[in-house]
Amino acid sequence: LRMAAQAEAGESPETPLATAAELEYFYEHLQRVMEAMDFLDPGNPKHLMRRMRRLFNRARLDQNELNILGGLLAAYDKARAPKQSG
After folding, report:
1. Residue 31 pLDDT grade (very low, low, confident, very high; cuts 50, 70, 90)
2. Residue in 28, 31, 29 with CA at minimum distance from that of residue 40
3. Model pLDDT for residues 5-16, shown as the tens digit of each residue
4. Cα(2)–Cα(5) distance, rounded to whole angstroms?
5. Contacts for 33 with CB less than 8 Å, ≥ 6 apart
6. What pTM was computed for the model?
7. Bridge partners of 17?
8. What single-letter DSSP state applies at residue 17?
């Protein structure tokens, strides 16, 4: 609702929207994580990834929101990485 009200009032969001390049990096990272989780078939990723892209594009993510999602993916990567003994 807030975004609709801002659009009608001609206001810009508090944080800039994510750029196409930032979104593309996010989609690539998302695909890698979903494959690692066995949630996405690496041999046939197009259908699900197309739907995921549509979902996030409709959300019109700003840079802070994209950073939150990217942080979530990075935390998964870190949690599954083999522990280094020192």
Report:
1. very high
2. 31
3. 766 665 555 899
4. 5
5. 73, 76, 77
6. 0.79
7. 62
8. B
